[in-house]
Design a protein that fits this description.
Layout lengths: L2 H8 L26 E2 L9 E6 L5 H16 L3 E6 L4 H13 L4 E4 L8 H9 L4 E4 L11 E5 L1 H16 L15 E5 L7 H19 L3 E2 L7 H4 L6 H15 L8 E3 L3 H12 L14 E2 L6 H8 L6 E3 L2 H16 L21 E4 L2 E3 L4 H6 L6 H6 L3
Parallel strand pairs: 2-3, 2-4, 4-5, 5-6, 6-12, 7-8, 7-9, 9-10
Antiparallel strand pairs: 1-3, 11-13
Helix pairs in contact: 1-6, 2-11, 5-6, 8-9
Length: 387
């Protein structure tokens, strides 16, 4: 393997140290109400924090909302938690209402990172600090802080897992026995989500050298972000695109070996298309193409355990929620939150100070170590595929 290739993928194998246990409950089983809005108990002395989450159609965002709610209430704050069901006007109205009601701080996971300028202007006018949660809010000087994972590194890990599945690399980063050429297709996230381009850029930093030397080929020719992007991260849209690719680029008997997918929901749609339109078998061992993923959603964790999906990226939402709470406490104490990155996240108006967390690649062989032993999911949930 060339030095350039090894350097690009070595970073993808960095593992986060020390996962905080969560009392044995799965991420989707916090025991907290996940309705459209929730309010805290009697901790009025801490003030009120508005939390705007994008949707309840993804178990990941339900888990995030519940974790932030529990952390803030445990720290003594009242909480107004709202889910917007992936509707931009709904999220805008929810944030407007929070500002009108006089919340002391906002934590926002934006649906569209460019659609909240007016709301952030109003928050600034009311001296309400704004923390962007996992998704950067763009085109506004009034984003005070950003808590997220190292999203470029997440993309590196996604691409690394694909290469491991193809046998080009081993899990330890060393060169594998497989030489290719391998036919792959590329999927990207929603173009209105700032993270999607970071995932893509990280993945392509790993894959492009292999595409240039012929180890990887993309028969569809669709190698640009705009061609691969899936609006709103919709599983059904990913399934239709995969079906179209199979019909247009693989109908003549060309075999597909792997698919870069940046999210587990997309991965499941891709796998459905592969097993349907593509006529591929049920498992990778039997010849199903290798498919990557992200978020360690329980349905995909079961698919990995069953040998159907190859890997996912574990972003521990408990860690992200904890960091959001710590950052909120700093603001409300009149202090600046600790940032570990002050260069990477330019929202078009300013560099937003950020705190980046690490993520892990989940393969079949380390599900227990990363997800069960840490209390994120239970063995029973992994076996059933249900939270």
């Amino acid at each position: 393997m060339s030095t350039k290739k090894f350097a690009a993928v070595a970073a993808g194998l960095t593992l986060a140290m020390g996962l905080a246990a969560c009392g044995g409950e799965g991420a989707g089983d916090t025991g907290t109400d996940t309705g459209g809005g929730s309010e805290g108990g009697d901790a009025v002395e801490g003030g009120t924090i508005g939390v705007a989450m994008p949707t309840q159609t993804s178990e990941r965002w339900i888990a995030d909302g519940n974790a932030v709610l529990a952390g803030l209430e445990g720290a003594g704050y009242d909480v107004d938690l709202q889910f917007a069901n992936d509707d931009i006007p709904t999220q805008s109205q929810q944030i407007d209402q929070m500002i009108t009601q006089g919340v002391d701080l906002l934590i926002i996971a934006a649906i569209d990172g460019t659609a909240l300028t007016g709301q952030l202007d109003a928050a600034a006018a009311a001296n309400i600090p704004v923390i962007a949660y996992d998704r950067l809010i763009n085109d506004s000087e009034n984003v005070d802080f950003y808590v997220t994972f190292d999203n470029f590194e997440v993309g590196v890990q996604q691409a690394t897992s694909l290469l491991v599945g193809l046998g080009v690399l081993n899990e330890d980063g060393s060169e594998g026995d497989a030489e290719g050429p391998f036919n792959v297709e590329l999927f990207a996230g929603s173009p209105d989500d700032n993270n999607a381009t970071f995932f893509w850029d990280g993945a392509m930093s790993v894959l492009e050298p292999y595409m240039e030397d012929g180890t990887l080929e993309v028969p569809s020719g669709q190698t640009e972000f705009e061609q691969a992007a899936i609006l709103r991260w919709q599983q059904e849209t990913a399934q239709r695109r995969m079906e179209d690719l199979l019909t247009s680029a693989y109908s003549g008997g060309t075999e597909l070996h792997g698919v870069l997918s940046p999210y587990d929901g997309l991965s499941r749609g891709i796998i459905t298309a592969l097993q349907g339109t593509g006529g591929y078998p049920a498992t990778i061992e039997e010849g199903l193409p290798v498919v990557s993923g992200q978020d360690a959603e329980i349905a995909s964790v079961k698919l990995i355990a069953d040998g159907t999906q190859f890997a996912t990226i574990f972003k521990d939402t408990r860690k992200l929620a904890d960091q959001a709470v710590v950052s909120a406490q700093s603001f409300l104490a009149g202090e600046e939150p600790e940032a570990n990155d002050t260069e990477s996240y330019d929202n078009g108006v300013k560099i937003v100070p950020s705190y980046l967390l690490e993520s892990d690649i989940v393969y079949e062989g380390n599900i227990t170590e990363l997800l069960v032993d840490s209390g994120y999911w239970t063995e029973e949930q992994v076996e059933s595929g249900q939270a």
